[in-house]
Amino acid sequence: MPVLNRIAAFADDMKAWRRHLHAHPEIGFDCHQTAAFVVERLKEFGITEIHEGIATSGVVAIIDGQGDGPTIGLRADMDALPMTEETGLDHASTIDGAMHACGHDGHTTMLLGTAKYLVETRNFVGRVALIFQPAEENYGGAGVMVDEGVLDRFDIGQIYALHNAPDLPVGYFSTTPGAIMAAVDTIHIHFEGVGGHGAYPHETIDPVVAAVSTAQAIQTIVSRNHDTRGLLVISVTQIHTGSADNIVPQTAYLNGTVRTFDKDVQAMVKRRLQEIVDGQAASFGVKAVLDYEVGYPATFNAAAETEFAANVAREVSGPDAVIADQPAEMGAEDFAFFLEKRSGSYLFVGNGDSAGLHNTAYDFNDEVSVTGASFFARLVETAQPITR
Length: 388
Fold this sequence. Notes:
It is built from eleven helices and 16 strands. The protein is α/β, with parallel strands linked by helices.
């Protein structure tokens, strides 16, 4: 473990950074204080090429190695979630309605630890692009960074990212070639009928019945229009309508999520949703409008880069601590936008026995920072070695 011991020497620094970030969460693209903290640390390390304000508050820092070579990208997300923390920890969020419940404070810390090590040793050729990204949660900050030309501007040839995984033991890694995270789309369905008195429903056109029937019909897409051996999830997650027990409302609203891996399956779902909405509207005599919102694409790991990353992880944690064929997950990740343009890989690193992600009791495990930073550092040194 040639890296782990050196990075472990500043584990206390990483813990302090992480807990500061955890106490001061920011949401979406508004990660300006987080970015300022990151930039301050990077300057302390001696990094001089720092680019700010990318995708509003994103940061890219460049570390030059010893000699010419390619540029490898390492990404960490910085944003928090709109949740109220309930951990009771000394370093709990000080911001009402904002919480690092997905461990992005830890991801940022791991990349800072990597930066500190790499700028001290520079035991690689070419360059490293450290990407500190805002707005992973729901807003697609990675896509904005790609659209703003980050990959071309810094000539990034391949790119990697880590995400913590509760219930995976600390020191363990998991990944897989090919599809690892799903595409995520959002459905909005608006119904309009004719409201009236609940005692005289025959004088109304009831959008509630239409909405409920539509929600049930949507479930047949998975069970009757799709090969049961494939991966597809459609969940209706919200129904909003009505204001009193004796009023048939004028309108109703359905909301839900669609998770796919295959673009043909995605197209089928869009088509069937429209057919169901149109059919239900005609059946119940209401007006209905489907708004299908395409979100993050599926996250696909390049085979060669994933095998390479798994081998680096084995070097850091041992051969028995790396799962290289984990099943694809139905969650989504905007790192997919980077992997659409460049080869690379997305891996999970164990957070141990912790509360789940997006849970008000969650906290990133500070032990993981050493493991993650060691992995990133060895990844760079192994991908772009100095030849002597």
